Amino acid sequence: MSASYRLVVVALRPLLMSLTRRDWRGAEQLRVGGSLDHGIVVAVNHLSWFDPLVVSHFLVDNGRLPRFLAKDVMFRVPVVGRIVRGAGQIPVHRGTAEAAEALTSAVAAARAGECVLVYPEGTLTRSPGLWPMTGKSGAVRIALESGAPLVPVAQWGAHQVMRPYVKELRLFPRKTMRVWAGPPLDLDDLRGHPASDAELVDATERLMSAITGLLEQIRGEVAPTPRFAWPLLPPAGSGQGRMTT
After folding, report:
1. 71-106 per-position pLDDT tens digit
2. Rounded to whole angstroms, how far apart are CA atoms 41 and 22?
3. What CATH fold (topology level) applies to the domain 21-219?
4. Which GO terms describe its cellular component (predicted)?
């Protein structure tokens, strides 16, 4: 653990322990053959700017130091950027020639035995009910290229502390942070050959279904269908957005 990472853990863990309650399940899914020495890819739904702390708390307390794929803008924020960079987080330069570097770095980290954390939606959910949206294929690609297990994780509660796209904290009364990990996604049908775009889309939908299934258990509700898609695609000539599958 780097000095920056240790500083963050030492500073934030006691605060999170005192300010939140926890309902954590599935920690055994973070082990490979009972060991923490093998790399894994963790894919989780994204509710709030507060949930990276919640998910990190779950992972660190269960023996995994997460390496996030984070937007490059975070690395340019004074103080925060230095901490994030020192903690070994992976910058994502969207829409640039450097965009592929994030995937390469993530694959290398997973092969080296690390825990790579990905938000497959790529942004906070825009679903009106805060359900997982359609996902991007990055998590599946990292798992396939590295050979690491892909572990779906659902979390619920961070949005009660910090609502989506709102920076105001609401710490009291204490909220319960629920983080549940499920069994690794079965990707055996895609291993041993280059996956086609259609296969990656299908595997990503299987991943989002696994995350959604865990969240349904947490919430005791059934997610609506079709899955909310972002950005919204307007029908020809309508000028209106719509949901896509």
Report:
1. 777 677 565 566 667 777 888 887 776 778 899 999
2. 22
3. Glycerol-3-phosphate (1)-acyltransferase (3.40.1130)
4. plasma membrane
